[in-house]
Design brief:
By secondary structure, the protein is α+β, with helices and mostly antiparallel strands. Helix content is about 45%, strand content about 15%. It has 5 helices and 8 strands, in the order H-H-E-H-E-E-H-E-E-H-E-E-E. The chain has a 6-stranded mixed sheet. Strands 1-3 form a two-stranded antiparallel sheet. A hairpin with a 4-residue loop joins strand 4 and strand 5. Helix 3 crosses helix 4 and helix 4 packs antiparallel against helix 5. It is extended, with a radius of gyration of 24 Å.
């Protein structure tokens, strides 16, 4: 090899070494910044939720307190508005915390009984009593098949299911009963496709991808929400090695699907029915 070519090669290798060293330093700096941000998010979340819990507690006391006089005509409405505001703020704090930490959280991968997890999530929702100022709704009906076991992080998967089932139960027309079904089937690539199907108001045409974007709300005026729930679901699904999406061809409600690595082959589906009346 000519001497000038050898010198040029060594110079190029040195430049490449420096570029790699710069990239490694940037990655370390970014990792440190993310860790600091997650720590800050956890701390500020606790600091914000503590006084919020106090406000909510005193507002609930006002609902049941014997004032010793006839309250003003709008008294109950004012108290209900305080409760609605504190509940929305609590959910927003929880969602912002989950959004900022789920990508860097440590995974604890294990085999998960998906049927048992869905049962637990539905059972917990049955214990959610109507809050003051929130109108009573018809008792929802949730069904699910005998679902296969999957591989994942139990806490993250529970959060994903809570968000998806919560949306399916929320987005119904006033006065109608929410009906939700959870099913699953194995894929050829060793993944399991899980589908959460509801008979609610559905997803507006052209928004089946947009609903997973940050702060996007498909029905902003009719239903409360933070716009982060499905974004968190996407981050969780991707973190667990899967994907998530909405079926644009489904009519009569909404169908959200996500995939996870399979742990074992399940037996044939056996429908399970849960009545959230408790």
């Amino acid at each position: 090899m000519p001497e000038h070519a050898d010198s040029a090669l060594r110079a190029e290798l040195e430049r490449e070494r420096r570029r790699n060293a710069d990239l490694e330093r940037q990655v370390r700096d970014l990792s440190r910044s993310v860790a600091e941000l997650e720590a800050f998010s956890r701390e500020i979340s606790h600091d914000l939720k503590a006084p919020l819990a106090g406000i909510c507690g005193y507002a609930q006391l006002l609902t049941h307190m014997d004032l010793g006089f006839v309250p003003p005509p709008d008294y109950d409405d004012f108290v209900a508005e305080i409760n609605r505001g504190t509940d929305r703020m609590r959910r927003l704090i929880d969602d912002v915390l989950a959004y900022s930490t789920v990508r860097g959280a440590r995974l604890h991968l294990t085999t998960i009984d998906l049927s048992a997890l869905v049962h637990d999530v539905v059972a917990d929702r049955a214990l959610d009593l109507p809050r003051p100022g929130v109108p009573a709704r018809p008792v929802p009906r949730v069904t699910w098949d005998d679902l296969p076991a999957v591989r994942g992080d139990h806490g993250m998967l529970r959060r994903l299911l809570e968000n998806l089932l919560g949306n399916a139960l929320k987005y119904v027309r006033p006065g109608e009963t929410a009906r939700v079904h959870v099913s699953a089937r194995p894929e050829e690539d060793g993944m399991v496709r899980i589908e959460v199907t509801d008979e609610g108001v559905g997803i507006p045409e052209g928004q089946h991808e947009a609903i997973f974007a940050e702060l996007h709300r498909a029905h902003p005026d009719a239903y409360p929400g933070t716009g982060l729930g499905l974004t968190i679901c996407r981050r969780i699904a991707q973190r667990l090695g899967g994907a998530i999406g909405a079926d644009p061809h489904f009519r009569g409600g909404a169908r959200i699907w996500f995939t996870l690595p399979a742990a074992q082959t399940a037996a044939g589906p056996v429908p399970v029915v849960a009545d959230l009346a408790g």
